[in-house]
Amino acid sequence: MNAFSQEKNFIDLPYLETSAKCDTLVTPDRIFLKIVISEKDTKGKISVEELETTMNESLKKLGINTQTQLTLKDLASNYKKYLLKQQDIQKTKNYILVVYDSKVAGKVLAELEEIGISNVTLEKTEYSKINEMFLPLKQKAVVKAKNQANYMAEALNQKIGNAIFISDLKTVVDRNNNSNFELQEVVVVGYSNRNKQNYVPIDIEFEKIRIESQIYIKFKIE
Q: What single DSSP character describes residue 185?
């Protein structure tokens, strides 16, 4: 049987077509924070090198492995120099810190603010097992499509048969990331210098990541 006759037979079959999608929400378990350390923040009183050393020690106190969790944002801009008043050059460094839950993120904010580093923003969030979510979602979408097809066929006193065409339309991962999101929102409102020692970060969650799978199926009508 040639390809043309195969295609013709497929088209001549009575069929019902439907699409379905399934989604789920997962809590990010990799939170990337952008940390900017700059001499400008201390009006040039503390060098970038000193801030960097202090930051490294402070993060280690929180149980963070700075060798694996802290990296320069880009090596090309290891030191970015800004010319102020033509003579005053102040240096800055950009880092990316990855933490694994929002409570630790809150502790990082408090600790960095304690040492004079407050320029911290959310770079992105990820879910480490996201690839494992795709196939179960596709399967649920297929089951949903079959149920829809059965429901429609029953209204016509007919039955659906085997699937004769299946298309995986798309898989969407919506992280809703906003690099301008200020992480100061993680810190408890009213947090001030006088109660830093008693500060306990609240247990909150970052916005969940939405994973969606959509499929399209043609079922033969018996």
A: G
